[in-house]
Design brief:
Blueprint lengths: L4 H6 L3 E7 L1 H10 L9 H7 L21 H4 L12 E10 L7 E14 L3 E12 L2 E13 L23 E6 L4 H5 L12 H6 L9 H16 L7 E8 L8 E10 L2 E8 L5 E11 L1
Antiparallel strand pairs: 1-3, 2-5, 2-7, 3-4, 4-5, 6-8, 7-10, 8-9, 9-10
């Protein structure tokens, strides 16, 4: 059986030291599309080390993404084909701003295994802390096609209600043709994002963009558009990956502020009749 839920949940956590430098942060920011226009003062906060601040979604790749999604798929009780793996969702909680240079202890474990009958869903939780205390908690929800039906808990299924009324802001962002190739240098080497033949085996017409790249692009847009460019205001960020993005496409981001500390976002692919890309997306802030 590829998924042994009891064994996966009972396995001890994996703990290791991760570290990052401004170079890693700069590469991540470039990978999610920062730096256009190159001399824009607002963009230089993401691309120039002397002004650098860290977008909170960098937590998903800090330490080259390990322990991360790919390493998590080698946990005890889990044996899967990468061609069947899709990133289903991501939940990030920030305990304080991320420094541009850092060393932390990352503890990773399987927090939940859900049986969706036609698929299994793993929740891989990584908690990072440095000498000053907790930094962030990351939950990656991994969708494993064809691995369900083992009689486990179906897990939560409720979807958030769609935001009411027209969006406060609508922004379009174009994904560069080479963006997946650049983003993968931050740690996610899955060939699904680079190799056309592998992508076809996985059921896609061509390589797709990393879901976490779209995730980072979206948070940057919210911070720049509604939070005055202040990354330290973000306290939590979650999304469900509702569809794929192909490099070269244009994304449409619609943003609502239903309350003072919450931004709701819907992201769609303009080139494919506004096909949903990110759903149930919430940025919490101060």
């Amino acid at each position: 059986m590829p998924i042994d839920a009891a064994k996966a949940l009972a396995a001890g956590p994996r703990t290791g030291e991760i570290s990052w430098t401004p170079k890693d942060v700069l590469l991540y920011h470039l990978g999610i599309g920062a730096g256009l226009p190159a001399t824009d003062p607002d963009e230089l906060r993401y691309t120039l080390e002397s002004r650098l601040h860290v977008l909170p979604s960098f937590a998903t790749v800090a330490g080259s993404g390990a322990p991360g999604v790919i390493s998590g798929l080698s946990m005890p009780g889990i044996e899967v084909d990468l061609a069947r793996v899709l990133h289903g969702g991501q939940v990030l909680t920030l305990h304080r701003p991320i420094p541009a240079t850092g060393t932390a202890t990352a503890t990773s474990r399987v927090a939940a295994v859900y049986d969706k009958v036609k698929a299994a869903v793993l929740v891989l939780r990584t908690e990072a802390a440095d000498a000053d205390g907790p930094l962030w908690t990351n939950d990656a929800e991994i969708f494993l096609r064809g691995e369900g039906g083992f009689g486990g808990d179906r897990g939560p299924s409720a979807r958030a209600e769609a935001p009411a009324g027209p969006p406060e802001r609508t922004v379009e962002r174009t994904v560069r043709e080479d963006q997946a190739l650049l983003y993968r240098l931050s740690g996610d080497w899955n060939p699904l994002h680079a190799d056309p033949e592998f992508a076809k085996v996985a059921g896609f017409e061509r390589p797709i963009l990393h879901g976490l790249c779209t995730y980072g692009m979206t948070l940057k847009t919210v911070v720049d558009t509604l939070l005055g460019g202040d990354v330290t205001r973000v306290t939590a960020y979650r999304t469900r990956f509702a569809g794929v993005v192909y490099p070269g496409e244009t994304l449409r981001l619609r943003m609502w502020r239903p309350s003072g500390g919450t931004v709701r976002v819907a992201v769609s692919a303009v080139d494919r009749d506004d096909a949903p890309v990110l759903a149930d997306t919430v940025v919490e802030h101060v």
